[in-house]
Queue: 2 jobs
Job 1
Amino acid sequence: MEKKIMLDENEMPDRWYNILPDLPEPLPPPLDPETNEPMKPEKLEAIFPKELIRQEMSEERYIPIPKEVRDIYLLWRPTPLIRATRLEEYLKTPAKIFYKYEGTSPPGSHKPNTAVAQAYYNAKEGIERLTTETGAGQWGSALAFATRLFDMECRVYMVRTSYHQKPYRRVLMELWNAEVIPSPSNLTESGRRILEKDPDSPGSLGIAISEAVEDAVKNDNTNYSLGSVLNHVLLHQTVIGLEAEKQLEIAGVEPDIMIGCVGGGSNFAGLVYPFIRKDGVEFIAVEPESCPTLTKGEYRYDFGDTAGLTPLLKMYTLGKDFVPPPIHAGGLRYHGDAPTLSLLVKHGIVKARAVAQLDTFRAGKIFAETEGIVPAPESTHAIKVAIDEALKAKEKGEEKVIVFNLSGHGHFDLKAYQDFMEGKLS
Amino acid sequence: MEKKIMLDENEMPDRWYNILPDLPEPLPPPLDPETNEPMKPEKLEAIFPKELIRQEMSEERYIPIPKEVRDIYLLWRPTPLIRATRLEEYLKTPAKIFYKYEGTSPPGSHKPNTAVAQAYYNAKEGIERLTTETGAGQWGSALAFATRLFDMECRVYMVRTSYHQKPYRRVLMELWNAEVIPSPSNLTESGRRILEKDPDSPGSLGIAISEAVEDAVKNDNTNYSLGSVLNHVLLHQTVIGLEAEKQLEIAGVEPDIMIGCVGGGSNFAGLVYPFIRKDGVEFIAVEPESCPTLTKGEYRYDFGDTAGLTPLLKMYTLGKDFVPPPIHAGGLRYHGDAPTLSLLVKHGIVKARAVAQLDTFRAGKIFAETEGIVPAPESTHAIKVAIDEALKAKEKGEEKVIVFNLSGHGHFDLKAYQDFMEGKLS
């Protein structure tokens, strides 16, 4: 069997997979925070373009990928599916481990799959400026990259601690001409309200979302863009799984276990959703123990942001005011989860598992040593569980096929690995 | 025409191209520093494996790539050839600009093409440990990556200023289990001699080479590995140009101008050498104004290192004691150049051009804004000249085909871009 399975350009999917028609029950609708009634699509037009609202609600199973988006995807897509033969040998497991590698995109992660699509639809509807929030900077840099390619302006509210501790992702965003603002800021009412109470507030993703949404509402020709959680965001990521489907077919195997890490759910959904109707596959969503939304959260309506400006979503949540400890997998520090993923977990179709930070870095180091690729701290969560499952397969003598999503490289996270190697992590 | 031209796995070259039989005159032999006579191959066995010495002297035009090396290449090869359509539009040039992108390898540059081959041949001949030097860390991280995959030990002498200023490449090397020593160190005589004179010596590539060579000579089962300059190193890089040859054929174009940046010459040679016998192609080697080896150096025998431990090579050199200013393109700070490239420049087959640091960063930013990829500071030298040539083509209304090597991504160099954007560079 080949080590790496590539697809030709013309084998890149020309449509995304929409899970809405295949959910086990209808998705509870987003609620208007002013009325507590189902949100009217028109109201969402204050911050989203019509086409993305349509996709958010669509019941069509497949949605075509526009040529303009495909042209940019081609810069790094199709991405490789790689058999982790060296890791298998190291573990002495009979399992076959495959990973889909999304780290070859210019910003280094899966995030541009949706950033490019969102920038495109906004530009097409005449929007000239996008706002968003970012924690560690993976999403912000993806949107900066995408808006640049469509000649749009971009403002990123970056969680203040990250702004100061992780200057390099900020530089990356600025290289793509985005304006990066430490959040909470004085530029919005939501920001000022926080700063009045606590001038030294370190910020949080919830606060930054409030600022970005407020900015989009109040400014002309400006929309807001979200990097995870919403249906249309997860939809755009399914290009990952649709490619993987063809690649596994070429490899001549059927997956037994599919794994992805979860912050809001977009990289997990991207790999897994196109396989969700397949029988006999175990789907495992991996989250950090320190932000155990799916494993310890409540399934209920909650806000997406701290100030309560967003629609209410039915999801697993730790509460909108939950501030997760500053783990290095910044992309997994979110109080809620995608409503579609939450529903699948509630129905037991997807299993959730929480893992400890130190174990994920150990797994990441083993992966770097065997497969040669240094994974992002977020992705190490998937690796940790892939290793656990491969060892279980070894115990039972089973030739399981394990597939996980390597959502990004760790080249921007070497400080975290340094802390790990120096024994400074807990 | 396609934006990106990919090759299938089975189209990856199965042999390297050796330029020695095609040089315009026989290559002046390396000289033994003790006798000033041509170096006896046996003497090189103190630090190199037999097969690499054979390749260094070989007159065969093609040398097979071993399966074990190809298997690892497949992790990231074949690499894409991309048409820079957005850059062309920005420049409003009739020229067609293509770049070969080597930044998708796990260490992020072209360097593993030879690191993997060198580790393989050494391991095959029973060597258990390799030493080397590194400036900014691109080469050191490539060798750390390669030795890890062949279960070898690796010690990297890293120029002390870089060791302290660029901790992240060091962390990357340590993640792959290499031992990284700031140079000059107390571990070698060469290092101690420098430290006696100047305890605060910032180090240099020449000093670090002396330390690494001495370490290899004095320790059992240890060899030395060089990341550029030597024939066998440039040979291994030709996999780049051999792929590009097939890709340009698929694109249906013939190159008019081919461009690469030059430190020691390996990424330039990698792209260009397979095309060197082609008529009517202009080959441009780009170096920094601050280290103008090819444009202002002397063509004569000189040492590869500062202490004078290496054989003497006939090359363009600024003198073994030349210490280039601390520009950000650390990979281009070397006093000498590959003997084969020097000979081609002397014969006018390859033209050399020196460019200013500030201009290269401006070119890098334009490239990031248009093509979306943030280039390594080394690679921006090639981009700067590609842009210049595309503008010349525009002036003359010529549809030139310009091909350059994008040797690595700039994800580890964001501090340099930050300094540039803040106006701190000169």
Job 2
Amino acid sequence: MSPHFHPVDLKKAYRLLNHGPTVLVSASHAGVDNVMAAAWACALDFDPPKVTVVIDKITRTRALVENSGWMVLQVPNAGQLQLTHQVGSHSLAEQPDKLDQAGVELFRVDGYPAPLVAGCSAWLMCRVIDEPHNQTTYDLFIAEVVGAWADERVFVEGHWVFEKADPALRSLHYVAGGHFYAIGEALDVEQS
Amino acid sequence: MSPHFHPVDLKKAYRLLNHGPTVLVSASHAGVDNVMAAAWACALDFDPPKVTVVIDKITRTRALVENSGWMVLQVPNAGQLQLTHQVGSHSLAEQPDKLDQAGVELFRVDGYPAPLVAGCSAWLMCRVIDEPHNQTTYDLFIAEVVGAWADERVFVEGHWVFEKADPALRSLHYVAGGHFYAIGEALDVEQS
């Protein structure tokens, strides 16, 4: 585990997703670990923090999430561009060594069942809230965030500091066809 | 209506939200128009395109969305930073001239009931799919996108071109406390 891996107050966990980054979804069940990329993840509530994420039925990760009831949503960064795209474009079903090929290193936090991806900028440990209609009809999963961490070099005392941190730690924002944007310039409102 | 307001193929409409921008939600019912900001909006499906958005019960906009069954999700830009924050921090209930105060100019597109906010970078006309459990329990709305448009200076033939366009047209990504980021540098994966 990186020395920069620091806990985030659950009341501020929504801020890790608020700016709309693409995430990696990791899960584990019956000895199988997997990781996929998901652009369609979103905060849903502040306290307790909740999230939504869309996970297609064709993904191998979905079965792991459904069977274990747990997943991690983590915020990959510019330094993980290739990794993010690789886990988003290959399935464990056709590439059994997918995680090795993509250079994914997993780690665990005591007390939580789902694996985390090393090198990300933030992590949300999520317990799935069973919503069969949403899952079946829309591939939409709702989960409660029960643990949150961030790389303290880019998320400091409840605030992203992309403008001051190593550019490799900027979040990724996927569009399509291998085309991403990194998060950019800080813009602060004039408070009246 | 701006000469740069151009239709977007519905099959590519998901790209307007894929990178996670903060949106403005506009709606109208019984002669009342309103606009609010929402950071928790997300694509949900490709074809037909669907979206999710979280709209708190305390907002005036929510009643307009529920009563009319229509809303527009639009992507405001760096040139609308103050406007976006103002419509996100004031309610029509306490400030009846909220839209004027924030400098919001609305326009309509023939055949669609919900009003659009001028000056944004993209617009998604959405028909609400009635999901009472999600709306009541999570403040979560699901809608189908039935019309999409973008400013052709920043979304060209199905692709965002933030890196080439006027920086004032960059999307906004809200964190908290009046602190936003603009979308940043384009990062393209090396295709193997």
